[in-house]
What we know:
alpha/beta; 44% helix; three-stranded mixed β-sheet; 13 helices
Amino acid sequence: MINAFLPLLIGSLPHTDPVSGVEAVFQFFPNTPTWPQFPRYSYLESMDFQYLDNIPGWYEKDGKVLFKKSDEIIISLSNYLEYALNDRWDKFVISINRAKGFYLFLDYLKKTQIKPSVLKGQVIGPITFLTSHVNEYGERLFKDETYLDSIPLFLRQKALFQYNCFKEVSEKSTIIIFFDEPILSEIGSAVTNISYEIVENVFTKIFHNLPFLKGIHICGNSDWDFILKLPLNIVNFDAYKFYKEFLLYEDAIKSFFMQNKYIALGVVPTDKEELKKVTFNGIYELTMNIVEKIKEIVGIKDVGNYIMLTPSCGMGTLEIDECIKAFKLLKDLNMKLRC
């Protein structure tokens, strides 16, 4: 059972000292910690680079990731695809040089004997990966059928790797993994040029029979009627900016909640200017307005049991004092809403 108004982080933090970043996570959210990413500590921890270990075909040129055409590396891709089809997550580890925060996070759990009720991880979403990465001729990967088939399965293994590492150190914790999909704020537009059918097929394939709660994080507006019908457990979005647009999809929201699924409201802004001027009372009133509207839509009295709270996006672009302000807002909001 997930506690009402569960507080979660998105992932990236501004710290250049990973130890202090991990300690801050546990200081504010000891019962629901998220392993942190540190893109300022190393560019290898940025979204485009962090999950590339053991994915065949890529190389780095002038600070950019490029992929060879799949027919040039078909044997290597076939070997790893076989691993992925058999859920050999041990073949898709995330190395410490790409995720210092992940390993410090695990060490912290081991040394302190903390057993949180929830542990959260994250991985780049398959649609964002396939649309943001290109081959050496500038073509997006989703246009290559072999990559379209294999990359989502590889990223499934990255999530399973995290799950199994979490269970090893905290067996009874509920595990949540978010697939971060900023590109899905552009679904249906010329920006992505990727079809709804492809997106649905990808998520149906990789979410099948996963042993953890599956979430999707979208930091913008989207086609919520479509997103809420995907085979996942949690939808997380920037509610601070886009709650009005989201709440227009009443039938989809009601259907989603009737399946005992969760909405994670990104109510704490991560835009520097917005965060500077926002107050706790303002955030609290905004959240209560959204919760009351959802309650009207779905007709569930204890709707808070199906609502989580997050920052609107990652905090890697903030300064540390701004990050701590967001932490405090999120923690205090959780405490007040649960009273």
